[in-house]
Design goal:
This protein has eight helices and five strands. It is α/β, with parallel strands linked by helices and about 190 residues long. A five-stranded mixed sheet has the order 2-1-3-4-5, with helices on both faces. β1 (about 1-10), α1 (about 15-30) and β2 (about 35-40) form a beta-alpha-beta unit. The relative contact order is 0.09.
Length: about 190
């Protein structure tokens, strides 16, 4: 089986060499062929894919089917947030690439590993639901305390009168929109 190794160190003071040593040994013991090694050094796991060039290259390599399995030292090397991790796992699953996480012994190519990764996705969905509920509760509290949701309106009495006057004169909606610098939907709202 062809494999890729992914390592990451958060600061430039840290090294990825120990991660590589363990993962190379694991690959050798399993009879895997290492086709590519990726290392993001001095980059936090909280950074997204776009800010981790080797992580991005890893995903692209998996998509191109350059390897069958990704070996990583630990879950935190792949990402710091559960939702980012599950997104990565789902992307790997969608292209048929397995994942092995050394520290926890998770291997998505085994039935037990598939179950554990499935549970992770359930927890991520739960986390997203909790966050959503908190956001909605915060918005409701804000409105109850007199706040208004959405962008502030630039619709003034003068603008409303101008729109009505121009429509009464038979001027088209698009022309009013252009001349007054308001959206077409705003004009329809005023004309109600």
């Amino acid at each position: 089986m062809k494999c890729a190794i992914y390592t990451r160190a958060s600061t430039s003071n840290q090294t990825v060499e120990n991660q590589f040593l363990s993962l190379r040994e694991y690959a050798k013991n399993k009879g895997y062929t290492i086709v590519k090694e990726f290392a993001d050094e001095g980059i936090s796991g909280a950074k997204g894919r776009t800010e981790r060039p080797q992580f991005d290259a890893l995903i692209k390599g998996a998509t191109k089917k350059d390897f069958d399995i990704v070996l990583a030292w630990s879950v935190c090397r792949l990402g710091r947030s559960l939702s980012d991790l599950v997104s990565f796992l789902m992307e790997m699953q969608s292209v048929g690439c397995n994942i092995y996480i050394h520290q926890s012994g998770l291997d998505s190519s085994t039935p037990q590993g598939k179950l554990q990764f499935g549970l992770l996705s359930c927890f991520a969905e739960f986390e997203r639901s909790i966050i959503r509920e908190r956001v909605i509760a915060g918005q409701e509290r804000y409105v109850r305390n007199g706040g208004k949701m959405g962008r502030p309106s630039n619709l003034t009495d003068g603008l409303i009168n101008s729109i009505k006057f121009m429509r009464e004169k038979g001027i088209g909606i698009r022309k009013i929109s252009k001349e007054l610098g308001v959206g077409v939907s705003t004009i329809y709202k005023v004309m109600g």
